[in-house]
Amino acid sequence: MAANSRLTIATHVLTWLALAQRRGQEVLTSDQVAASVNTNPVIIRRSLGDLRRAGLVEVRHGAGAGWSLARTPEEITLLQVYDAVGAEPPFGLHRTEPNLECPVGRGIRPALSEAYGRVERVIRRELADTSIADMLRETLMS
Amino acid sequence: MAANSRLTIATHVLTWLALAQRRGQEVLTSDQVAASVNTNPVIIRRSLGDLRRAGLVEVRHGAGAGWSLARTPEEITLLQVYDAVGAEPPFGLHRTEPNLECPVGRGIRPALSEAYGRVERVIRRELADTSIADMLRETLMS
DNA sequence: CGCAGCTGTAACAGAAAATGTTACGACAAG
DNA sequence: CTTGTCGTAACATTTTCTGTTACAGCTGCG
Q1: Which residues of chain B have pLDDT under 70?
Q2: What pLDDT sits at residue A3?
Q3: CA pair distance A124, A79, nearest whole angstrom
Q4: Which chain B residues are within 8 Å of A36, Cβ to Cβ?
Q5: Residues of chain B found within 8 Å of residue A16, distances taken between Cβ atoms
Q6: Which domain holds residue B127?
Q7: Number of domain units in chain A
Q8: Which residue of B has its CA nearest to A16?
Q9: Chain B interface test: which of A6, A28, A36 (most B C-beta within 10 Å)
């Protein structure tokens, strides 16, 4: 499995909040969300923290606390979630600097950055085309 | 940095082979390639092994051994390299199975697979549009 | 005002994957 | 047969993500 399941976790969380909202449940606690994702509540709180900093969810403190969406599910795209969780780009450059004496070693990194940038752009365009509302609809189909 | 620099290493290797070929140097040893990438020869041999299995490079054994491209630089695309190195997809599903009692836990994975599949498709389309010859040209520009 | 319940975050353990290193048998040209 | 390089195993190192425990901080309610 790929290293990065943060987008998966965050999308799961938001989809679950969207369903709860539609069912009239105002807020969910991190324990309730963790029960659906089947993981530790701290993992969920970390993910929800990312989403809160991005303005996608709201938190209520104190007794009767919990989380709710800050916007409608139609207004939240997977691109916003992708940016919120701060995922690494799919391809990394060299871990150690190439040999700058060599013409390839000198010029390959700008060339790769260009190519990887083009890939990143099409990824973002594609992610922007799917909303949490779309995800909820597809989720309930199965 | 992202975990996966395998595509970067493999592209660097192929670009270097393409330049050597153009300069009239028939083969390069893994030591020579490693000197440009600035890493251990074994890393290079592992990468070249992937590329050989994909039919992108050829190896000559014995004394005076070394590597050369199996096709012209124009005929090798980054998509072929991507497939050759067997990189993980950018997004992974849940590490542990979600709670199947929950409607979201039950339906989210097929929905995510759909969305991630669309992303994978546009990545592949973009990678297929760049060849090693393109990379060499861009590399020598700087 | 104090209690209860949940958040926010630090600290650390564990797991998994990529990378780097050493070593050595296999192979082919001369 | 000698020499130089490949192919690969074995292991150390590093990095990143995930999971867990612990505890201070906040807020509604009695």
Answers
A1: 1-3
A2: 60
A3: 6
A4: 98-99, 102, 104-105
A5: 102, 104
A6: 6-141
A7: 1
A8: B104
A9: A36
- What do you get for the CA distance between the two ends of chain B, in Å? 23
> Long-range contacts for B97-104 (Cβ within 8 Å, ≥24 apart)?
B97/A38, B98/A12, B98/A36, B98/A37, B98/A38, B99/A35, B99/A36, B99/A37, B99/A38, B102/A16, B102/A35, B102/A36, B103/A19, B103/A139, B103/A140, B104/A12, B104/A15, B104/A16, B104/A19, B104/A36, B104/A139
Q: What does the alpha-carbon distance between residue B110 and residue A100 come to, in Å, rounded to a whole number?
A: 46
Which residues of chain A register pLDDT less than 50?
1
Per-residue confidence (pLDDT) for residue A1, from 0 to 100:
42
Q: Which amino acid is at A12?
A: H
Specify the pLDDT at position B62: 79
- The whole-number pLDDT of residue B3 equals 61
Nucleotides, chain C, CB distance < 7 Å: 3-11, 17-23, 26-30
CATH of the domain at A97: 1.10.10.10
Residue A61 in domain:
yes
pLDDT tens column, B87-126: 888 999 998 899 999 999 999 999 999 999 999 999 999 9
The answer to whether the CB atoms of A95 and B1 lie below 8 A apart is yes
Residue A59, SS3? strand
- Partner residue facing A142 (CB), from B4, B88, B107: B107
Domain assignment present for residue A1? The answer is no
- For residue B1, is it within any domain? no
For B20, which residue in chain A has the nearest alpha carbon?
Answer: A104
Structure tokens at A66: 């919990």
> Per the domain annotation, does A112 fall within a domain?
yes
- CA B132, distance to chain mean position in Å, is 11
